User: What shape does this take?
Amino acid sequence: MSSVRLDKVSALVKRELSTIFQQNMNVMFQGMMITVTQVRVSPDLGLAKAYLSFFPTDKKHEGMVLVDEKKFQVRKLLALEVGKQIRKIPELSFYLDDSLDYFEEIDRLLKK
Assistant: This one.
């Protein structure tokens, strides 16, 4: 069950993660543009699942490996940004958001 607090924390984490990925694109992520499409926070605020989309799309698997390697640095940057607003900084889990690929495939099939 979703609550107002969980929704607010999810939106906050999504906004700050987006900013972190945008500001550190060239330094930490080899110039890859990373978009945070959705964030789901567990009810105890201990875990945040972030769904990511990559550009260029042909390097999305390399991007996921790179993001997983930098997970602790991203969490530290997140803690610096939201540490005063939420007490417990959630552990981060990153997942590939392939919904755009799915929509493109459906569109391609419908055009046949």
